[in-house]
């Protein structure tokens, strides 16, 4: 069975399916773990003691998660952009890389990384109060971006900040710039300064990923919008790892 699963991963769509399955299974395992914990602590006395079947189900789910994790890692290792570049980025392991690559469409001629920004909801919009903000998920409203991809990229930012490396330095520089410009302003509380620096860092990472993926696939590489259209200077090229090291 394992061989069949791994063979299917030659198809990027199969990797996407496994990533979605892993996310659903994780939710179920967490819910079951919370249930068992509540029973053990006496918070929930509906069933005492913990029924043995609960622990058997937990063990089964953990085993399934392990199988899926191995299959996902095998699948993402077959993607050239992961092997040649993304796996060398600190904070990006096989699981996060698989989520990114499963839900980001491959670069195409005539398009740019802005298509990814739009898909992930990373293009700020002007609110009625005049403030510029990223689109929010609101209960009962249709999202105009890919919510799962947005959550994945939020996790990428968290991992980068915790791990260090090239993109952690980008985050530090951007946050320092924002603090210097907006510290003390009511519209810029600490959490907004932090969030904005994280999303700027993620957008740079996506720009670099688009560049490297397009390069590998032989797709024409367009300059970033802010340089090509807005005329900004100071382009930051993708970091180039040396050997098996991480940057």
What is the fold's blueprint, element by element?
Elements: H1 2-8, H2 12-40, H3 52-76, H4 80-84, H5 94-103, H6 114-120, E1 125-126, E2 132-133, H7 147-163, H8 166-182, H9 190-217, H10 225-228
Antiparallel strand pairs: 1-2
Helix pairs in contact: 1-3, 2-3, 2-5, 3-5, 5-7, 7-9, 8-9
Question: Can you give a write-up of this model?
Answer:
The protein has 247 residues and is mainly α. The chain folds into 2 domains: 2-76; 88-228, no CATH class. 60% of the residues lie in helices and 2% in strands. It contains 10 helices and 2 strands. A two-stranded antiparallel ribbon has the order 1-2. The longest helix is centred in the first third of the chain and has 29 residues, at 12-40. Mean pLDDT is 85; it is low at 1-9.
């Amino acid at each position: 069975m394992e061989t069949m699963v791994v063979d299917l991963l030659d198809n990027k769509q199969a990797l996407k399916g496994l990533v979605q399955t892993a996310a659903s299974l994780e939710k179920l395992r967490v819910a079951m773990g919370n249930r068992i914990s509540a029973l053990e602590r006496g918070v929930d006395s509906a069933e005492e003691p913990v029924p043995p079947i609960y622990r058997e189900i937990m063990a089964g789910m953990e085993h399934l998660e392990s199988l899926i994790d191995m299959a996902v890692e095998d699948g993402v290792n077959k993607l050239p952009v992961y092997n040649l570049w993304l796996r060398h980025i600190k904070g990006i392991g096989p699981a996060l890389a698989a989520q990114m690559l499963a839900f980001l469409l491959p670069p195409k001629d005539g398009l740019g990384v802005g298509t990814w920004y739009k898909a992930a909801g990373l293009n700020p919009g002007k609110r009625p109060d005049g403030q510029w903000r990223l689109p929010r998920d609101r209960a009962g409203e249709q999202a105009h971006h890919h919510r799962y991809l947005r959550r994945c990229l939020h996790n990428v930012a968290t991992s980068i900040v915790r791990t260090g490396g090239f993109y952690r330095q980008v985050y530090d520089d951007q946050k320092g710039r924002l603090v210097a410009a907006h510290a003390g302003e009511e519209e810029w509380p600490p959490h907004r300064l932090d969030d904005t620096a994280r999303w700027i860092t993620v957008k740079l990472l996506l720009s670099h990923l688009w560049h490297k993926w397009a390069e590998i696939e032989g797709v024409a590489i367009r300059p970033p919008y802010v340089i090509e259209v807005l005329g900004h200077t100071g382009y930051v090229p993708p970091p180039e790892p040396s050997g098996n090291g991480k940057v």
